[in-house]
Design goal:
Blueprint: E1 2-9, E2 12-17, E3 25-27, H1 30-41, E4 46-51, E5 57-63
Parallel strand pairs: 1-4
Antiparallel strand pairs: 1-2, 2-3, 4-5
Length: 74
């Protein structure tokens, strides 16, 4: 499973594969990059960590949803 991160940059927001030098996608707003990431990761098995502006993790998503290792009730 590949790991991707959405982080704040000097020019907006970036979707970057863990260990990569360059961003896979960039956008001016966080909402825009989250939408682009969902499209980009469709059909892939990946983990996406969405960071806040301060760098802390706000949310983690797994693509596809069935690949999520933590099963929770309702």
């Amino acid at each position: 499973m590949d790991n991707y991160h959405i982080t704040k940059t000097d020019k907006g927001w970036a979707l970057k594969k863990q260990g990569a030098d360059r961003a896979s996608k960039t956008a001016s707003t966080k909402a825009e990059i989250v939408a682009l990431a969902s499209e980009f990761l469709e059909g892939k098995t990946a983990s996406l960590k969405i960071h806040k502006e301060d760098g802390t993790i706000q949310e983690e998503r797994t693509y596809p949803r069935a690949a999520d290792p933590t099963k929770t009730k309702g």
